Amino acid sequence: xxxxxRMPQMGESLAExxxxxxxxxxxxxxxxxxxxxxxxxxxxxxxxxxSADGYVIKVLVKEGETVPVHTVVCLLGDxxxxxxxTRPSQEARSPPEGAAAHLPxxxxxxxxxxxxxxxxxxxxETRLLEKSSPLVRRLAAEHGIDIRTLKGSGxxxxxxxxxxxxxxxxxxxxxLQAAPPAPITHRDTEDRIEPMSVMRQRIAEHMxxxxxxxxxxxSVFEVDMTGVRALKDSLLAEFEERHKTxxxxxxxxxxxxxxALLRFPLLNASVEGKNIHCHGDVNMGIAVALxxxxxxxxxxxxxxxxxxxxxxxxxxxxxxxxxxxxxxxEVQGGTFTITNPGVFGSLxxxxxxNQPQVGILCVGxxxxxxxxxxxxxxxxxxxxxxxSLTFDHRLVDGAVADRFLAEVKSTLEGTSxxxxxx
Length: 422
Fold this sequence. Notes:
single chain, Chloramphenicol Acetyltransferase, Dihydrolipoamide Transferase, 19 strands, 7-stranded mixed β-sheet, 422 residues, alpha+beta, globular, CATH 2.40.50.100, 11 helices, 3 domains
């Protein structure tokens, strides 16, 4: 039996996708729900799992090729047809591009034989690794975790994503030893030219379009985050031990911003021709930095969520964004965006608006600084941060933008307004 694998339609408005990477080559065995290939659209990069068990018997779309949705990209079969093993055809002797590099010169494709031989020579350590999915192995590699040292909670001892997350979130991550930095060597270097990734091309197009569309203006406020720091620190242990999630400053900032947007609807809006579309819900986009770009997953109805729900949402979306597990609808429909370059040490930023939105809030690094207290004129050490708002001056006036920032500042500095438990 032959199964056709097609380019999925990752969202109603998407008509095509780019096949970025194959996880399997011709002759490889693939299991149901195991990642088969990666695609990139103008909305999201994601892995596509196999819909069935079988062997890859033919690849029809090469890496880097853009095809319409529903195009057949490869064929799966129960096994390689017998005639292709006993009497190799010309097609078998000339495997599709992407598979030839993995075969000795002049060899016919004989995946069944190669598979069994690989299985017979696999060591125990290799078999332990193979019990985990490619996503789990990638997460482990990113965080320097040796899967073979973990006791898996999945079927047959399989290490799951939750096992990795629990390890990262305090159950052993502190014991990881960082590798010493590689010594600096001096050598001659050469210029190199490499093509932009599909994601980088989409980002470039989107940024240029935004600058051409909106009249960008940025306003900056300084916020005393000392109270938020104390509250966050008091909740860290409970969140990690009881709720199994990590707590950072970002959920507090998301909540304060979302609730301020309800009072300043012009910043939770978009321009549609000569009309203003004021959105009823605050669907908060959270910019996530990736190795090769940036993506903005969305927290739906952020204005109604407490710190716990926001912490879980932020961590989940960031994790799945970096492991290419987001769905197209999870990066659509945002009404406002928060970007947090402060985690990299940046103090102040002037970000570009994420169209068709009219505002984006940039969170700078939270640092202890000497501050003059206005009520006593005393100098004290406080945890301070700069919040900068880039807004579309076509719709939002400076006075509205500054009152909005003042509202966010007031909420963060008077932390009793923050809802924690829900």
